[in-house]
Specification:
Length: 172
């Protein structure tokens, strides 16, 4: 089986591929898994972390496999970030368009909150900012009075006073 794999190129070794070989899993019931797998060991030059990838893909180079799995891991990390930061627990729709729309809306919300936090130098977490804005969305109060208040009590006093407008205003 080793002869099926080409010898590691200098470029692959210089790019982080440490090992590329065909293996067979063994154990008490090795006959239960009579397939051979490819093991690609890769050290990420950016982080220095070593990864071991098991695959049944034989026709691609070891460096290509390492890059594919690294990209796939970045996608998984991105979705983890979405769940943690954008507070998307489940997708409302199942079509590609529905999922994309929900992600875009969540990202826009996150970016707007981040921008508000930056511009107002607010000390609240994004989650707390979002919560305060949600609680006061129909109050006649400016965002500055919500985000720049010294304490929660001061903010609540300001929220109870009538404002000049009939809607929440963004003053930066």
């Amino acid at each position: 089986p080793e002869h099926l794999l080409p010898k590691l190129s200098r470029h692959a070794r210089n790019s982080g591929v440490l090992q590329d070989k065909i293996i067979r899993l063994v154990g008490n019931n090795a006959s239960d898994l009579p397939i051979e797998l490819r093991l690609v060991v890769y050290r990420d030059p950016e982080t220095g972390i070593t990864y071991e990838y098991l695959t049944n893909i034989i026709h691609l180079s070891a460096l290509t496999i390492a890059k594919i799995y690294k990209s796939r891991w970045n996608i998984e990390t991105f979705f983890k970030w979405i769940k943690q930061n954008l507070r998307i627990k489940t997708f409302i729709g199942t079509t590609e368009n529905a999922v994309r729309t929900q992600i875009w809306i969540a990202m826009i919300t996150y970016l707007l909150l981040s921008y508000l936090k930056y511009k107002t130098r607010c000390q609240f977490t994004l989650l707390k900012m979002q919560r305060y804005i949600r609680e006061n969305v129909f109050a006649r109060v400016s965002l500055n009075s919500i985000l720049l208040s010294d304490s929660r009590e001061r903010m609540l006093r300001r929220c109870s006073r009538p404002a000049d407008h009939n809607q929440v205003c963004l003053q930066l």
